[in-house]
Write the structure tokens for this entry.
Amino acid sequence: MKLRNFYFAALSMLAISAGFVSCSSDDDEWDWSKEGSKIEMSKTRAFILNEGSSKQNNAGLTYFDWTTDATYANDLFMMQNGVAMGDVAQDIIVDSDDNIFVIMSGSKLIYKLNSVGARQGVLTVSNELSDPRYGVLDKGNLYVTCYGGYVAKIDTKSMTVTGQVKVGANPEYIIKKDGKLYCTCSGWGADKRVAVIDLKSFDKANYFDVMDNPDRIIEVDDHIFVQGYGADWSYPWGELDPAKGTFTKIGNASAWASYKNTLYLAFSETDWSTYATTTTFYSYNAKSGQLNKSSFLKNAPEVLSSSSVYGISVNEENGDIYVMTTDFVTPGHIYHFKSDGTFVKDFASTGVNPRKIAFLD
């Protein structure tokens, strides 16, 4: 009798112990269903922002697991929200709480999504501000460039505009550095400046001249780099030194991304008489100022050398590099490389003009 009681007591203790282990494990486990997802999703998920084609209402998000590169949703936004995302997806930004902000230029919308792509809020941008382009986060605010010539300040909780500063016609990319915002003013070819706004006052802009028709701007290892189309559409890029007020051209590139102190660059040149494209890859060490003209990619598929690179994204978790290509008509392609440049896999983006990838874990 005593032996039997001891046996059941031991089983009970084992069950209680297992229960504690299970609860601890559950606490560490990410639950996609609690986020309101209509499909099962991996914790290691990534979202490809497919820009779509102008006035075609075919922008979208493709979800894939970045540990396997397996795609699971060709249009995640439609799947989670039951409506099309809209016209021309321009930018995707993730905050520290895994809220996702998607900027829709053609539709003049800015979405706030949760970590599975379910809509939490939306801002319809005014006609005065006009088409929203790119954004950067700072202390609960999203700062967005708008083609009406403004940088708009948006409260990310209420998704309302709380301020705006005039900068110049058709501003494009924007970054935050040392308490200031820096954005390019393209003027659709008529401008050549980078606007600078103090975040505390947020009342006016000062300017630096860089090149004709500037587009991208990025901060790498405390250095600011600007890229644009140039007067002859040669895609020049170089370094802006705000302390000296100077801009120094370094090379030519049509797409880039950074990881730690390295800038990864692609230069796609198209001969429009034959529609033949030639693409070269190279890198720049911002810390040492060293330009490496050799490709940062290893055993890359040959097709990449004749494809138009539309974007490059880097997974900050492991440094892996993703090169996105387009023919501007059919769904694009993604080429995955390890952080050392070794080719891993290629897969379809399932949408037209893939331009950026957001990684979550």
Summary: The helical segments are 2-28, 76-81. The first strand starts at residue 45 and ends at 50. Residues 1-27 have pLDDT under 50 and may be disordered. Residues 2-28 form the longest helix (27 residues).
